[in-house]
Amino acid sequence: MTVPPSLLALLQVLRPCFTAPTFRTFSALVTGLIGANRRRTVVGMLLGAGMTHLWPHDRAHYFFARARWSADQLGLALARLIAQRLLPQDAALHVAVDDTLFKRRGKKVYGAAWQHDGSATGAKKTGFGNNWVVLGLLVPLPFLDRPVCLPVLARLWRPGSEASKVELARQLVGLLLSAFLARELCLVGDAAYHGKALRDLPERCSWTCRMQRNGVFYAPAPPPTGRRGHPRWKGERLGTPGEIAAATAFTRATVQRYGRTETVRLAVVAGLWWGAFHRRACRLILIRDEGSDKVYDLVLVTTDLSADPAAVVSRYAWRWQIELLFLQVKQILGVGQARNRVQRAVERTVPFGLAVYTLTVIWYALHGRHEADLARRRTREPWLTGKATVSFEDMHQALRHEVLEHRITHVIAAHNPTQQIRVFDLERCALPDTLPLRHSR
């Protein structure tokens, strides 16, 4: 087994999360998931690593089902690596949280059930599989026009379990808070992520999400009157977002969202969302697109009382990157294709795949050549006239070529180089975008 030095340097940062034999297996499976050109099952990772004739296939299954390592510890190590290599020192961490369904088959798969699947076709929007609550860091990269979501923590949610998805998200946020004691956290979630579990968040952790149309907003608590009895905890009822928008004046503002600069109209109201955040002060931000005839087009609630409203709108627009993350890890990296069934294997295979996604982006940000990759892609596919930045597919292909090239250029004579060159050529023929080798053979 050979690992490119640039990738090995990143893997060595994660070395304390594993024992010595487990780390060797981890490194092989990482390169196997990156280099595989078939289904990314557990044995498919072993096949992609080129270790099928050296290791028994049970070694790969043992890594997920019985080996001693923690997915949470691995995720926190990745989060620290991102903060050290890709973010300014002491900068606030922007975090997105959401859940997605990884489809599975078989009644004996742990935690699998029929549940909501937002990406499913048809009117029912259901699917059979495992549902994961994922927390990812939103990281701006200099060669991209929008941030990228790097998953660091994930937790399996089972229908009928005591903990809800919001409570699982709160647990993951707590782990991140304990790992970064001196940093502020700015979290964003969709309309499903609010509730009692988020009321105890510390002041350095703000939460931004959508508000439902039937949600009720209240004025801040009035000052004590000096009379007998407990002071009021909330002010007068301001109403639903529609009622507030009809009685509030909007001002024009410029926002950056979804890679574009747009002019919108904003209305900001301070108060309390009693049903979600209880006594914690919030701001209601109503957004109306320029030229829209609606009362409002989007309504946000944030516990960040100091940020500019336009910046909060842009921050919430970053949340869409976690939706792109789910698409990419399933269709490009093949996360979720593993066919294991026991509890520990199911609980650790998807976080492992998400970690490989994060490692791929970190490696490309440090060692990738985005200008050359973009020019090569435009040359090979001239119809991509609007392609201005590299995608995760380009990052994945660049790292995959690095892994395969290093594997063939660093073999020893006893391993039959002639046969390995032939296998390597077959692997390169299976790639959708074949890149030239950097070194001669």
Overview of this structure, please?
- The protein has 441 residues and is an alpha+beta fold.
- It has a domain at 370-429.
- It has helices spanning 5-13, 20-35, 42-48, 57-65, 71-85, 165-179, 241-246, 274-277, 309-317, 320-331, 343-367, 370-380, 392-409, 417-429; strands spanning 93-103, 113-116, 126-139, 148-157, 185-188, 205-210, 217-218, 237-239, 251-257, 260-271, 282-289, 298-302.
- Helix 1 (5-13) packs across helix 11, helix 2 (20-35) packs across helix 3 and helix 4 crosses helix 11 (343-367).
- The chain is globular, with a radius of gyration of 24 Å.
- The protein starts with a helix and ends in a 12-residue tail after the last helix.
Brief summary of the model shown:
The protein is an alpha+beta fold.
Give the uncertain stretches in residue-range form.
Answer: 432-441
Structural class: alpha+beta
Distance between the termini: 19 Å
* Largest sheet data: 10 strands, mixed
> What is the subunit organization of this protein?
single chain
Q: What order do the helices and strands follow?
A: HHHHHEEEEHEEEEHEEHEEHHHHHH
Number of strands: 12
Overall, the morphology is globular
| Mean pLDDT across all amino acids | 89
Strand fraction band? 15-25%
Question: How many helices does DSSP assign?
Answer: 14
Rounded to the nearest angstrom, the radius of gyration is 24 Å
Helix fraction by DSSP (H/I, runs of at least 4): 25-40%
